[in-house]
Specification:
The complex is a heterodimer of chains A (140) and B (185). Helices cover 44% and strands 30% of the residues of chain A. By secondary structure, chain A is of the alpha+beta class. Chain B has a domain of 110 residues: Kinase associated domain 1, KA1 (TATA-Binding Protein), CATH 3.30.310. Chain B is 48% helix and 30% strand. In chain B, strand 5 and strand 6 form a beta hairpin. In chain B, helix 3 packs across helix 5. The radius of gyration of chain B is 24 Å and the shape is flat. Classes of the chains: A alpha+beta (140), B alpha+beta (185). Chains A and B meet through helix 3, strand 2, strand 3 and helix 4 of A and helix 1, helix 2, strand 4, strand 5 and strand 6 of B.
Chain lengths: 140, 185
């Protein structure tokens, strides 16, 4: 009886450690390789005005029914949430590429799930293209 | 033989359910990330253009109205013309609490104790964005969303607020605030 109790106790301790390690591993875990993820989440636009691009992205967020959670012009990031029975969170960051282009990167989270599906990002970039009157080019 | 057949049916059912839920999720993303037919109407409802006021003063007047309405400013970024704010409220309705308690007592009497939650707290989230139209005019757009939690702490509703009266009232208060800011009141 005592032997069983000891085995059970050891099992519980091992499971507790495993659960803890699992939670910590989650923090930096993704399903897709880093380069592939960046490529599906990024597009290049022929635009140079940092402030104008960021303002058009913010307007697109609002046209899509997102409420802005945070915007930082100097860093070039905007985050927003759309609530419609679900919670869809999106962060968009912009950075220059050479002297004539800007890279726009979007990342999405649906409820508690990170989106790693290329088609979903394509929906956003075609909408942004319409808002910018510019073609979204894939990143090399 | 029979067990194998049941197993096969289970596998087919599980595959079908996951396929359907994946399809449904794709539709949600498409709907959420492309312009809806109403987007221009929503934009008009949520936007006003003010004359003879620059962007910085319009942001100042807007922040003052949001404070008047009991909102907490969570984030601001003047260079992109953004104010993010929120307001928490207790939305408990006595009748709903009484009904919840009565149903809980009834569930105990029938031998199946069940918790019957009621709406408890609400958080309204708003973001206000200003855009210079030209040297004379500045546009301001505000969007509201809200979340409601029940007495068990679970989210009950999370939606966008699209009632025209809310936007009309906000812009009417903003017009007054612009007047007060202009007169340094």
């Amino acid at each position: 009886m005592r032997k069983h109790a000891t085995t059970l106790f050891i099992l519980i301790v091992i499971l507790a450690f495993a659960a803890c390690a699992g939670r910590q591993k989650n923090i930096l875990e993704t399903n897709e390789p880093q380069v592939k993820l960046r490529s599906m989440q990024s597009r290049v636009f022929d635009i140079t005005d940092h402030n104008q691009l960021l303002r058009i992205i913010i307007a697109t967020f609002q046209d899509l029914g997102f409420v802005i959670d945070d915007a930082e012009e100097s860093l070039g990031t905007v985050s927003g949430t759309k609530l419609s029975g679900y919670a869809l969170r999106m962060t968009v960051s912009i950075r220059p590429r050479g002297t004539h282009q800007m890279i726009v990167r979007s990342s999405l989270q649906y409820n508690l799930q990170t989106i790693e599906d290329p088609e979903t990002y394509q929906y956003f970039f075609s909408t942004l293209s319409k808002a910018l009157f510019l073609e979204a080019q894939p990143i090399d | 033989m029979k067990v194998r057949r049941i197993f096969k049916i289970c596998v087919i059912l599980i595959s079908l359910v996951s396929f359907l839920s994946a399809c449904q999720q794709k539709n949600i993303f498409k709907e959420a990330l492309t312009f809806s037919p109403d987007y221009f109407k929503d934009r008009q409802l949520q936007t006003r253009v003010f004359e003879s006021i620059d962007e910085k003063n319009l942001l100042t007047a807007s922040a003052a109205v949001l404070q008047d309405l009991g909102y907490t400013i969570d984030e601001t970024d003047v260079r992109s013309g953004v104010i993010v704010c929120s307001r928490d409220r207790d939305v408990t309705v006595t009748a709903e609490v009484v009904l919840s308690v009565a149903l809980e007592i009834l569930s105990i009497l029938v031998g199946n104790p069940t918790s019957v939650p009621y709406d408890k707290t609400q958080k309204v989230l708003a973001s206000l964005v200003t855009t210079p139209v030209n040297n004379q005019k500045t546009a301001v757009r505000i969007t509201f969303q809200y979340m409601v939690w029940d007495s068990d702490g679970n989210i009950r509703r999370r939606e966008q607020l699209n009632e025209p009266e809310i936007y009309q009232e906000f812009f009417s208060k903003l017009s007054k605030s612009i007047f007060l800011v202009a007169h340094e009141i």
